[in-house]
Structure formats: structure tokens, C-alpha cells
Design a protein that fits this description.
This protein has a 7-stranded mixed sheet, sandwiched between helices. By secondary structure, it is of the alpha/beta class. Helix 1 links the parallel strand 1 and strand 2. Helices cover about 30% and strands about 25% of the residues.
Length: about 180
């Protein structure tokens, strides 16, 4: 999903990997982003941050311990955010989504990936002890938090056809309306 025809990182200079875990997305962000882009990868777990920093070594990445619901960044600081497989670990997605919308600049983009309420999603939910999301409900919650669905993405056409791979959506933070 990290490519010009899907979630394009070209032109983004400050990118946040929210809940980076073991760094699985950081390597793709580095590969697909501009050579002068700076990446901030945060996770609540110090153990995961250590794994990520060992897995992906780059002077363009800063690893930070942070809570998704209380990020230590000013409003509108990032022009792109990747949040993969994190929301399903929160009892309510709203505080996390509102905080991500806050630190995303107006006109900025966010790639959100989460477990969907399908048969495969239920299996993942059982394995990882996390929740699943209904696509329509999540869209409404994103809108409440100031994020609009730009387009849905899929790993492959097979994923689209059989609703595999979870919910993957390119979100945008709209510019404020002119008065």
C-alpha cells in the first residue's frame, strides 16, 4: 500500500508512524518517502521501540515512547501519519483518532489500517486479543474526529473481492472552511 498509486508519501517531510511496534512500517516509509523526510516512530512499549530501533537503523528515524491519546507534538506538526493495527487495542478509538487528527496538518494524509469485523478479522481478534471494526461505523467515527475518508485501499484485488486484510483507508484532515 506504500506506493504512488496507493498511499503516496512523496512530498511529505515529517511523517509519524503511530504505534510503530517492531518497526514493520518504518522500513517501507523510509523506502517510499523522500530522501530528506524525517520519520518519528512512537510506541507505548519500550521493548517494542528497542526491537524497532534494532530492526531499522537510520539517522532519519527518531524512536519515542508516547501514548497515542497524549502525543508530545504541536498541532499540525506532521504532514503524513501511518497508523497500522493500533486502534483495535483501544477500548474507544475516538481519543486516539482525535489526537492523530490534532497533530496532522490541515491537508495532511493518514494511512489507517485496522482489523475488520469479518470472519478473518474475528480470527485475528481472538489470536491478538483485540477488537474489530465495522467499516461504516469506523468511517463515522473518523468523521467525528475530523478525518475524512479519501479512499479505501486493498493489498490486492483478491483482498478487495473477499474482504481480506482488514480496513485500509487513506484519510485526510480537511482545511478549515473559509468564512
Amino acid at each position: 500500500v506504500f506506493k504512488p498509486t496507493a498511499f503516496d508519501l512523496q512530498g511529505c517531510k515529517r511523517i509519524l508512524d503511530a504505534g510503530c511496534g517492531n518497526g514493520r512500517h518504518v522500513k517501507y516509509i523510509l523506502r517510499r518517502g523522500d530522501p530528506d523526510a524525517f520519520i518519528t516512530a512512537f510506541d507505548l512499549s519500550q521493548r517494542m521501540l528497542k526491537r524497532a530501533s534494532r530492526r531499522v537503523k537510520s539517522n532519519r528515524v527518531r524512536y519515542v515512547a508516547a501514548d497515542l491519546t497524549q502525543l508530545p507534538y504541536p498541532d499540525g506538526y506532521f504532514d503524513a501519519i501511518v497508523c497500522g493495527w493500533v486502534l483495535e487495542h483501544l477500548p474507544d478509538p475516538r481519543p486516539g483518532l482525535m489526537e492523530l487528527a490534532r497533530v496532522l496538518q490541515p491537508g495532511g494524509k493518514m494511512l489507517l489500517m485496522t482489523t475488520e469485523d469479518t470472519v478473518m478479522g474475528a480470527m485475528s481478534s481472538n489470536l491478538w486479543h483485540c477488537r474489530t471494526y465495522n467499516r461504516h461505523e469506523l468511517r463515522r467515527v473518523c468523521q467525528e474526529c475530523g478525518l475524512t475518508w479519501h479512499r479505501q485501499l486493498y493489498f490486492t484485488n483478491l483482498h478487495r473481492l473477499f474482504r481480506l486484510g482488514g480496513i485500509i483507508v487513506d484519510l485526510r484532515r480537511p482545511f478549515p472552511a473559509c468564512v
